[in-house]
Amino acid sequence: MSRLIAFGCSNTFGQALPDIHPENKVPSKFAWPALLANNLNMECYNLGIPGASNTLIMDTIMMFPFNTGDIVVVCWSYSDRLHLLDANIKSYHKRDHNLKEIVPWNKSRRTKNYYRYIYSEQHHIQMTTHFVKYVDLYLREKQIKTFFQFSCEDNYFNPLFIPIDFSKIRSIHPFALDDGHPGVGAHQELADILYQHILSKNLTIK
Question: Is 13 exposed, middle or buried (0-12, 13-18, 19+ CB in 10 A)?
């Protein structure tokens, strides 16, 4: 069976959806990757990581052993996040690593100083643009069919992306159980849109 492999942050993982809340230890079966894979009759690999930056998403993609026939959907995250990568870490999904993160909700002195003295929105946008283009070239070289979207409104009009406003979709549906993340309805609508888009490409799925 062909594999649908999804990369992203908590909006891919399915944070706070009813089957995994409040532990949120494994990806939700109500998240868009599982729903999309079911529609396509494919095996689902949901590699979303709650809190992931685009740096982390890119590195997770670099680590993954792809097979011929895989379909990849990357739901890129918010550009203001940053992870400092460590070559000794071989997987980010066990959550037992001490990867340094610079994210808005982290109140460490390092993070506060970064956002106060170093952070540049334009620089982070440019970094995300480079990550996206690098991953696109990397997966094209492997002949892996890939689809990109953003989990937020920051699409930067990049022509590589499916024109989906996930922020708008999640705003018109009830939120997940933490009253912040996309709820079941938003995940279902996104899965339906992605399904129609993938079907329109006339891909051969075995």
Answer: buried
